[in-house]
TrEMBL record:
Family: Belongs to the VPS41 family.
Role description: Plays a role in vesicle-mediated protein trafficking to lysosomal compartments including the endocytic membrane transport pathways.
Compartment(s) where it occurs, according to its Swiss-Prot or TrEMBL record: Cytoplasm, Cytosol; Early endosome membrane; Endosome membrane; Late endosome membrane
Main localization, broad class: cytoplasm
Source domain of life: Eukaryota
Protein name (record): Vacuolar protein sorting-associated protein 41 homolog
Amino acid sequence: LKYERLSNGVTEILQKDAASCMTVHEKFLALGTHYGKVYLLDVQGNITQKFDVVSITLLRTHLQGCKTASPVKINQISLDESGEHMGVCSEDGKVQVFGLYSAEEFHETFDCPIKIVAVHPHFVRSHFKQFVTGGKKLLLYERGWMNRWKPSVLHEGEGNIRNVKWRGHLIAWANNMGVKILDMISKQRITNVPRDDISLRPDMYPCSLCWKDNLTLIIGWGNSVKICSVKERHASEMRDLPNRYVEIVFQFDTEFYISGLAPICDQLVILSYVKEISEKTEVECCARPRLDIVQPLPESCEEISSDALTVRGFQENECRDYHLEYSEGESLFYIISPRDVVVAKERDQDDHIDWLLEKKKYEEALMAAEISQKTIKKHKILDIGLAYINHLMEKGEYDLAARKCQKILGKNTELWEFEVYKFKEIGQLKSISRYLPRRDPVLKPLIYEMVLHEFLESDYEGFATLVKEWPGDLYNNTIIVQAVVDHLKKDPQNRTLLRTLAELYTYDQRYGRALEIYLTLRHKDVFQLIHKHNLFSSIRDKIVLLMDFDSEKAVDMLLDNEDKISVSITSSWHGSPMLYLHKLFKRDHHKGQRYHEKQISLYAEYDRPNLLPFLRDSTHCPLEKALEICQQRNFVEETVYLLSRMGNSRSALKMIMEELQDVDKAIEFAKEQDDGELWEDLILYSIDKPPFITGLLNNIGTHVDPILLIHRIKEGMEIPNLRDSLVKILQDYNLQILLREGCKKILVADSLSLLKKMHRTQMKGVLVDEENICESCLSPILPSDASKSFSVIVFHCRHMFHRECLPVSNTVSSVQFCNICSAKHRGPGSAVLEMKK
């Protein structure tokens, strides 16, 4: 909670008078004093109205001949919920109930002090014109017929009534013995809560009552707190008992004496009267009162916060001099003492931010303001953010201060420029350079130029980074280019400045100069520059330089843009043509065919693994030239391929056997050529070489009859693994026989299945009606006169003829065939049935 004194009119009142009681309405405050006056105040403490309750007492004293009259203390003030009617009672026994905005009034004087008065919460309504007063008796006044007030005794005989609170249909009051609750609907008393410590004088340590809601009563007396809940009794438990009962749900003791209670959410606010032993005199004296917030537990409580209040004159006050009133809607708590009125409020986010700023916790304050920006009234996020930036700069955390500028300054260009100049004054432009806005908003060009000049003077790499990251339209490019040129005069070989100058030329669309610098530096961005700005016409005489720099990228670029740049291979290309021609051939075997002869030499010189694939895929290379090159370099595999491609398979096979001596490759070659004479040559060459015979026996079985080879083997020749080879030949032969038999079975089964299917199909009937015609005479196949005899021939091909229209067959066989299908070579089409009548 936070605290402040209620000032203005209250200060003026308490300089001459002393507060005795106060009640709080959401619209105003009502303050009673020891001098018998009632003041209506606004929430700021300004006096709006004033009532003098003791005027009748003074008048009566004057009529009796007394020269002086002592003012009387106001004991209690009561307001209805509307705030339009007020009840006041005083120490001289006077009770007044009147309308603040009407002429309605009731007043009565009793022969004893009246401690309490409470008007009905809905007194403004005509059928709720009720109020209670308490002195030695608790009296209920009700307005009846002819606007007369009828009193009735609700309770008496247990000492003075010390406190009363009316909520809804329930009235709670405290006397010397305890607390009672009355149900106004049934006019039955439903409970009696006795006080715990009977040793305390009830007039010095009065009971505090507070309704939390319509069914929850909070009782504080001495140092004991009870929270009571009013509940409905079950119908089966009624008998002669009230229909409601009270259950104490929380009960605990406090460290000090209770002067007032108020609810705050599910917690309690307790005003405590404190006594302590003076260190100087060692005598018990009054200390500052405490305002505690506690969390009630079933048999104890948990302290949430505790504050000691320095009220005026606390050294002379007693427990009965303090009162605690509260405004339900706004969580305002009023601590009333004779010489002071203090207002306690829940701390809001503004208070929290104030505390954080006071502790220099700016980041937390900024976060709290952002979270509660809709509720804070005192602070602005921008002001807190600027204070945070200044704080960081004072601490020397320039980079963090610059980073926070992005979030705090947002799109405010004036603030951005102001902060940049602040960074410049302390020589920290580099710190803020990374965080300057580059779009939405954009600052003045002078700001960016100022930062670039700062880097150019001391940090070439940082300058290059900014030029690369910043869009070229943020600053005057001409000014920066001139500044870089001036620095290059001092250091003309500085690669960083040259690279940056090329980028600046690019921004300025002077691509030719940028390209020259990139090529001079052999910079990787040269290809991106050419592609992005379509500079292909500018690189016709620079292809060799590009090849020397990065042949892979250069070749890809040339091939991807064949329509934009024509390439002519010259002697200055050195080894680069091979890569270009290789990739060109991979993309299209027919492009660059005029260079295929040159490619053979290049592959033979630099990349033999790709020579044979090239020879296989190319249809334009000169075979004689290729054979000459391969024979000169003794490339056996390539020579073999060329010989076979040129039709000289025998020479190719001979080369495999003599040069490579690889029987497996020779067999593979013979399989590819599928030439019986090659197999004969292979057998003749291998017949005196046992290892070759083994290879042939293992692989020849599926292409040549192995008997031809076995008959030619000389007797007594030792052949390695002969047994295994013969076994393999027999296994291969058996496998072939099994495959043939399996295929035969499948073929027979399929043939039989199809034959049966055809037979079933041909056995089916064929519909013949008057719509069908004879394929020979083209007249209806059935006669119009059904009584006449007729004969019809129907073939499986569904062609139909009259018997007499079908030509007589010249064959000896009795089977007839469809003339139409026979003429079209569709097959015999034999007749399926003959219909006669």
